[in-house]
Request: fold
Amino acid sequence: MEQYGAGSIVVSDYDANWPTLFAQERTRIAQALGALAPAIEHIGSTAVPGLPSKPIIDLLVGISSLEEARQRCVKPLEAIGYAYMPEYASWLPGELFFRKGPPGPWTHHLHMMEPSHPRWEARLVFRDYLRTHPEAARAYADIKHALAAASKNDIEAYRTGKDAFVQEMTAKARAWRAGG
Reply:
């Protein structure tokens, strides 16, 4: 069992400061990486106004080459407090994953990948769908609260418990985007 670093998983009410925290962090990352990171997006539940979330800011950083990023981005990100988690490569193929904050609770998760990777589009369309479909966001909040209570500190159970909903909503989001 992969344990959540902060003890029990807690899904907090939406915090209106999350977009500001993202903007501050985007600036730090842009300064640290410069042209190596031409795109930095706010993803995850903290990017959806009104949606409860684990209080961790998720960032999606676009890079032109994963291999170049592995060589040139790890040290600058470590210098601003991020820890590279290479063991997550099996769970998140095609991306580099970083955490920031004490060894739990973490304050930031950074997902670095090429924008051509299918998960890039999936994460953005899912976010955008939840931003514009409050009934889907409410359903997601209910699932997250139930999973947090049931999973205790088993973060893998919490993550995998959301998979079916995320896949279903991502499919709806793609259809919504294609039709609109």
About this structure: The chain is about 50% helix and 15% strand. Residues 58 and 109 are 5 Å apart (CA to CA). The domain at 18-179 is CATH 3.30.460.10 (Beta Polymerase; domain 2).
